[in-house]
Design goal:
about 140 residues; alpha+beta; 5-stranded mixed β-sheet; binds tetrahydrodeoxyuridine
Length: about 140
């Protein structure tokens, strides 16, 4: 796995925690914040944004990712996620698929609990055998 300095992880978690405060969560009350770091050292922050119709809810990870992609970013180095929960928050299946579209399989995913304790996983650990653009290209 790509090595991240402890100092860098703490910084990303601090930023993710700030993003968590922006969460729009009138239904679950579960605040999530994400901090996505690009190869050039920029940080994109995201929170979860819920909806009365539930299904359109956007997770913090996807909010951060879509903001970054809109700004033209295509090179990602790490993502940190923090929530209100007592457990390490792990990206949902949909977010794992979105991360797999843009991020390298060995990218560190930092999953924290509400106190800032964390564990780091490689993206490929979270979504083994991801379906990607290559699967489509190879069949042409
Ligand atoms: N949620 C995230 O934002 N990221 C995750 O990694 C897990 C789930 C949000 C979606 C919803 O707003 C709330 O948490 C409860 O599922």
């Amino acid at each position: 796995m790509k090595q991240l300095h402890e100092f860098e992880i703490k910084k990303m978690l601090r930023l993710a925690d700030e993003a968590r405060e922006k969460a729009y969560v009138p239904y679950s009350g579960f605040h999530v914040g994400a901090c996505l770091k690009t190869g050039s050292g920029a940080y994109y922050l995201g929170c979860n944004i819920e909806n009365a119709s539930y299904t359109p809810t956007n997770c913090a990870e996807r909010t951060a990712m879509f903001k970054a992609v809109y700004e033209g970013e295509r090179d990602f180095e790490a993502i940190a996620i923090i929530s209100d929960g007592i457990n390490y928050v792990a990206p949902c299946g949909v977010c794992r698929q979105v991360l797999a579209e843009f991020c390298p399989p060995d990218m560190p995913v930092i999953c924290a609990d509400r106190d800032g304790n964390y564990e780091v996983h490689e993206l490929r650990e979270l979504i083994p055998m991801a379906f990607t653009k290559k699967d489509i290209d190879d069949s042409k």
